[in-house]
């Protein structure tokens, strides 16, 4: 069924009933009747006073309290957030200071250790060089002593060999002193030519 038709039927029904005064009282609307105005004003005033009392004394303070509590909570949360933010900032600054101090201290210790290590290495190097030089000098002294002893023994040995050879080969006997003297002269000349 079409809704327009239903709407037309309802409108026609209302018009028919209105024409026959079935829907309304015969005298019209009672609110517009001047006989009831005083009682209406009285009850309207009472109703508004009671409603005003309930709103101003009961509902409004509760609503105001809720609004104030909410405002206080928001302010407290903002203050807490700001204090936490400041605390985090101070902790961050303190953390950076600690890191910088630790880095600086580690750098200083590292530099100090390097310096001490270099000093120790230099001391050990100089002591080793000194020891090596001392040992070289000792060895040189020993070589010189060995050379001198060898030369002394060498002249004696050569003298003995020369005298024995002369005796056996040529059957000449020469004094050992003369042979030793000539060997020493020859060795001295050899020594001088080697040193030059």
Give the key terms.
about 200 residues; mainly alpha; 3 helices; about 0% strand
Main beta-sheet annotation: none
Number of helices: 3
Helix/strand order, N-terminal first = HHH
Number of domains: 1
Proportion of residues in β-strands: under 5%
Alpha-beta content class: mainly alpha
The value of Rg in angstroms is 68 Å
Q: Using the alpha-carbon principal axes, give the shape.
A: rod-shaped
Please give the alpha-carbon distance between the first and last residues.
148 Å
Oligomeric category: single chain
Poorly predicted sequence stretches spanning 5 or more consecutive residues: none
- Approximate helicity band: over 70%
The overall average pLDDT, rounded, is 81
SS elements, strand count:
0
Quick rundown:
The chain is mainly α. The protein has 3 helices and no strands.
Structure description:
This protein is mainly α and 196 residues long. It has one domain. The chain has helices spanning 3-19, 37-170, 176-195. The longest helix is centred in the middle third of the chain and has 134 residues, at 37-170. The protein is rod-shaped.
Q: Which secondary structure elements does this structure contain, and how are they paired or packed?
A:
Elements: H1 3-19, H2 37-170, H3 176-195
Helix pairs in contact: 2-3
């Amino acid at each position: 069924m079409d809704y327009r038709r239903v709407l037309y039927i309802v409108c026609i029904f209302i018009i028919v009933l209105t024409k026959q005064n079935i829907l309304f009282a015969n005298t019209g609307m009672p609110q517009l009747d001047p006989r009831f105005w005083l009682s209406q004003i009285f009850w309207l005033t009472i109703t508004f006073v009671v409603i005003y009392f309930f709103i101003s004394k009961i509902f409004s303070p509760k609503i105001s309290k809720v609004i104030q509590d909410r405002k206080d909570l928001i302010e407290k949360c903002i203050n807490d957030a700001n204090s936490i933010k400041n605390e985090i900032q101070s902790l961050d600054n303190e953390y950076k200071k600690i890191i910088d101090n630790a880095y600086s201290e580690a750098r200083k210790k590292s530099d100090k250790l390097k310096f001490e290590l270099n000093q120790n290495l230099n001391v050990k190097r100089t002591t080793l060089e000194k020891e090596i030089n001392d040992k070289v000098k000792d060895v040189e002294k020993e070589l010189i002593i060995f050379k001198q002893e060898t030369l002394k023994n060498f002249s004696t040995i050569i003298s003995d060999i020369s005298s024995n050879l002369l005796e056996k080969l040529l059957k000449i006997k020469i004094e050992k002193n003369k042979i030793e003297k000539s060997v020493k002269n020859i060795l001295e000349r050899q020594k001088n030519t080697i040193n030059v």
